[in-house]
Structure formats: C-alpha cells, structure tokens
Amino acid sequence: MLPNDWEKWWKDQDTKLVHFIGKDNIVFHCIVFPAMLKAYGGYILPDNVPANEFLNLEGDKISTSRNWAVWLHDYLEDFPGQQDSLRYVLCANAPETKDNDFTWKDFQTRHNSELVAIFGNFVNRAVVLTHKYFGGKVPANAKPEEIDSQTLAQIPELKATIEECIENYKFREALFAAMNLARLGNKYLTETEPWKVAKTDMDRTASILNTSLQICASLAVAFAPFLPFSVAKLNKILNVEQLDWDCLGKAEILPVGHQLNAAELLFARIEDEQIDAQIAKLNATKQANASAAAPKADVAPGKEECTFEEFEKMDIRTATVLEAERVPKTDKLLHLKIDTGLDIREIVSGIAQYYTPEEMVGKQICILANLKPRVIRGIESKGMILMAKQTDGTMRIVAPEEVLANGSVVG
User: What are the structural domains of the chain?
Assistant: First the structure.
C-alpha cells in the first residue's frame, strides 16, 4: 500500500467502513466520531459498528494495570504451536450478546473435546486409513451409498450459514457452524466404520474414505478464517495449496489418485498440569494485588536514640491486676490495684475506652515499675502500663504469652 492510499479506505464511497468496538465505546463511535467526520466533510461514515460486551477472566474484569490478563507472549511460550487454540476459544466464547467469562478449565475442555476429539480426530482417522488401505492416495468413489450423498448434501447449507453469519458479524455462530461440519465428518466416519468394512468390501471402503477426504478438504476451507495455522497444517497433510472458498461443499475437491502427505496430529491435548500452572499464576497475581491494595500501616516515626545505660534504668516487670474501677467523672481513666511481686500498688491508666474494669481484673500486664509517681485525679499513680498503639489508633495491652511470676523482669 502506498503512503497516500489511506484515503481510499477513509474517503472512497465504494469502501465499506466497519468499526469493531467494545460496548463502552458505543457513544463515541456511533455519535461523536461520525459527527466529527461529517462536519469535516469528505470522509465516509461507518456502515456498521458491531459492539461486543465485556469478556472477563476467571470471574474478574480483565485489567492490564492489575496484571489480570492472558498475555500473548506468555501464552505462546507456555503453549507452543497452539496459537489457534486460543483463537478458537476466544471466538467460541466471544461476548457478542452478553458479558462472558474466559476460564482456563473451559479453555482446556473446548480444546480437548472439540478441536482434538472432533476436528483433529476425524482428519487423522481419515488420512491414516487412506494411507493404510490405499497408499495415501485418494481412492475412487467405487461403491457409493445414500449416506455418502446425504452427508455431503448438508455441507452447502452449513456453508450458507457460515457466510451469512460472517457477513452479519456473528463470528461465534459462524465458528459453531464450521465445527458442525467437523461433527458431521466425525459422525459419518463413526457410522460407516471403514476399518470394519475393509475386511470384506474394499470398494465400499474406498467410497467411504473418498467422502471423508472431501469433507477434510471442505474443513480446510471453512476454518481458514478462524484457524489459519491449523489450516496450513491441514493443507500440508492434504498436499494442497489454500483452497478457494467456492470449493467448500463440492463433492470432488480432491481428485482421485491425489497423493496425500503423511498424517500428523492437528492438535495436541492440553494436560491438567498446564492448566494448573496458569491458574496458579493468576492466583499469585490475585494475592499480589490484594497485598498491594491492603492499607499501609500508619507507623509512628522513630524516636531519638538512647544509650544502653539509659535503657537499663527502666525497670519493666510483670504484674497482675487485683482490682479495677472507673475513675469518677472521667471517660478514659481506670483506677487499678496491682501486685508487682515487689509490692501492692495503685496505677491510674487511660485505657477505659479499650478495656472494662471486669476485663482487667486478673489480667497480667507489664509495667514500668520505676516511673516517678504522679497524682492523677487525687490518686497517686505509681507506674505505667505498657501499651501498643495499632494502625487504627486503638491501644492494646502488651502482655506475656503465658502467665509469669509477678515481678519478673522484662528486658
């Protein structure tokens, strides 16, 4: 395309302009942007604006900023040679009419039960049996039966469905119709059982495999818009170049005597271990996001250094509360009588909003025993209880893990 060819796509009246968007952009692409183009003049307007709903990942909104996504470069490393598997599942699960959810378990199920067990299984059986009985050459339709023509007659209808759906941007339904073609071939081969017929009637076996190979060729056409890498592999097996769309549904796409290449699996099974690894990766992301979103502790700034000698002056000991009551006409103060192991003394502490008198009786605490006494509300308080201030501002008593003798030195 030459540098100035862009005008052909944006201005030529013979060009059909289609905007593929998410539903959150409907207003812009249906009103704002067309209005801008029309006001400026000379530009064609969108013929259609197919808008998809949202696709979530494992029940949560996809977010690249939160690393909640399936990154393509990681996928291609973890699932080498399986580009089309992701394309298939994303299209089959496309949120065309409502929000949808991508899960790794569903991805595995669709891949193994549809691509491997239906599409891949049918092609592999047809090609392997042709090599086994006819040297890999397309056999003649030597002994046709009604089931052959009835099966092939269903393909033009599937073709019409695929075409209509693609023209109307219903890609999920188009893919479903293409997979129905693979189901048709799989069902035909299962019902005709050429591996059994070959024991008594090789002419009939030839007709069955001829019909099966024509369906394989139709599959190479029908899936070309959806699975380009797999179709390239199928074309190599069938020993053909990319077939024209008009070939889809014809009864003699592959001529009699045409040499096939060796069979190879179109799709490899995806094992539980691969899926478990992807789920574990997402769980790690979820934990990291939760940790990042957790409120950070509002830690008080550190204080000035003190020397070891200064620290040694503090006499911190265990004690047990014997009695407790509220200090009259106050909301915050409790009047405690405690056993320090050295003596029985009284302490006034501002903990009434965190502990009731009943909760304090019998509780073992740690106190600064040699704090200079001070009179609070007429009560001489001899010591200070050790408390820890939490990030939400509440205070909790610092206490030993198990009951110690009163007067035990802390330090």
Answer: 3-52 (no CATH), 80-247 (1.10.730.10), 308-410 (2.40.50.140)
Find all residues with CB under 8 Å of 273, minimum gap 6, and list them: none
Query: Which pairs count as long-range contacts for 73-82, CB under 8 Å and 24+ apart, including other chains?
Result: 78/274, 78/277, 78/278, 79/270, 79/274, 81/229, 81/268, 82/111, 82/267, 82/268, 82/270
Tokens of residue 230, six digits: 């797999």
Strands (E), 310-354: 316-326, 334-339, 344-349
CB-CB contact of 324 with 361 (8 Å): yes
CB distance 17 to 47 below 8 Å: yes
Exposure string (b/e) for 211-247, b if CB count within 10 Å is 16 or more?
bbbbbbbbbbbbbbbbbeebbebbbebbebeebeeeb
pTM score, whole prediction: 0.71
- Whole-angstrom Cα distance, residue 234 to residue 238? 6
347-403: pLDDT as tens digits: 999 998 899 999 899 899 999 999 899 999 999 999 999 988 877 778 888 888 888
Give the residue among 73, 71, 103 at the shortest CA–CA distance from 90: 103
Question: For residues 366 and 386, is the Cβ–Cβ distance under 8 A?
Answer: yes
228-238 and 202-222 helices, crossing angle to 10°: 150
**Distance in angstroms (rounded) separating the CA atoms of residues 287 and 119:** 38
What are the tens digits of pLDDT across the range 233-247?
Answer: 999 999 999 999 999
Distances in whole angstroms, Cα of residue 161 to Cα of each of 110, 167, 207, 246 = 22, 10, 27, 14
Phi, psi (deg, nearest 5) at residue 57: -120, 115
Provide the percentage of residues in the chain whose pLDDT is more than 70: 98
Tell me the DSSP string of 8-54.
HHHH-TT---B--EEGGGHHIIIIIHHHHHHHH-S-PPPSB--EE--
- Measured between alpha carbons, how far is 351 from 360 in angstroms, rounded to an integer? 10
Other beta carbons within 10 angstroms of residue 90's beta carbon come to: 17
Position 129: which residue type? L
**Element containing residue 365 per DSSP (H, E):** strand 364-368
